[in-house]
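Q: How do we represent a protein-ligand complex in a form that can be generated token by token?
A: Start from the inputs.
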Amino acid sequence: MADIYQEALEFFPYTQGLRRDLHLHPELGFQEVRTAGIVARELQQLGLEVTTGIAKTGVVAMLEGAAPGPTALLRFDMDALPIQEETGAEYASLHPGVMHACGHDAHVAVGLTAARLLWKHRAELKGSIKLVFQPAEEGLGGAEAMLAAGVLENPKVDLALALHIWNEKPVGWVTAPPGPLMAGGEIFKVVVTGKGGHGALPQATVDPVIAAAHMITALQTIVARNISPLEAAVVSVCQVKAGEAFNVIPQTAEFSGTIRTFDPSVRQQVIERFEAVVKGVAQALDCQAVCEIKRLTPAVINDPALAAAVTETARTVLPDVTIVQDHRLMVSEDMAFLMEKVPGCYFLVGSANPEKGLVYGHHHPRFDIDEAALPRAAALIAAAALHLLKQ
Ligand code: NI
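Then emit the structure tokens for the protein with nickel (II) ion bound:
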């Protein structure tokens, strides 16, 4: 297994060719028809049993090991973003206004390379690998749609792995921390209703603008005064709407925003306080308030044993690797829906290279990666799966 990185390097022209082709032809969520076609073709060439059209454009393939055992799911996302590319690269997007600005082109290429590596090593596998190519990760509900389509059944999945190429860190950097890695997100919307009227006759009105302003201020005490300073939480009001005229007190005011947390009990506490603050202020100021809190994604929480196995694999397999044990991000990722159901490990593989100017962050129009990250990512996820299915 120690030379799996060497094998991934031998596949580099294949991986790079796929990644650049996908980068030229990005497709938005649930529209990954060409991408899914390439994925299915490449997996069928290995002789794998391939199912297409799952949750519209998802592709799943089974790779059976030599001996029976658990099933490990490996997930790769396929969608691009509605961004006009400005990299000027020779493989820059041919589709105006659509770009692989998050690196999911790299994920597909890494996934197809990992499939080839695991195929070579299938005699060592005790169990099976379920390769999952998921549509629509970028806030469109791809993971939930794959779950609803039964991606964790037939055969039943025992553990799950996924990765992200990570341009905030240089090539060689890896993190697979035990416990929380990415925050869970909520979207909230509050509609405050009072009694509208003349701006110069406030005594005849119930002003929802004043009530909303007090709510927005009071909501800031949740993080400042209710949550332990040693825990992480965000409550951000990002949109406020009220009124049409300078001399009219409106009938309603509304605001919306997002909540981010890691720990389920902290999440519960934030939501309970949020509702209590909104209700309490509304009551005190004689308004009605309707509060809607919707889940965006749960937190990405790594199983400690799987995180330890991935970390150990990175140390064994990758040259010149820098492993960071404790790393957390407030961004969210829909792999969390799968990891709520089965133990999993999500890890990040550094892909920036300041010397080559490859430093733009994810979702930036000049986002591009150092492709030296590709064989590292492919070797790591394949070797981690092999390691876990040998036990
Ligand atoms: Ni992404």
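Residues 102, 104, 137, 164 surround nickel (II) ion (CB under 6 Å). The mean pLDDT is 97.
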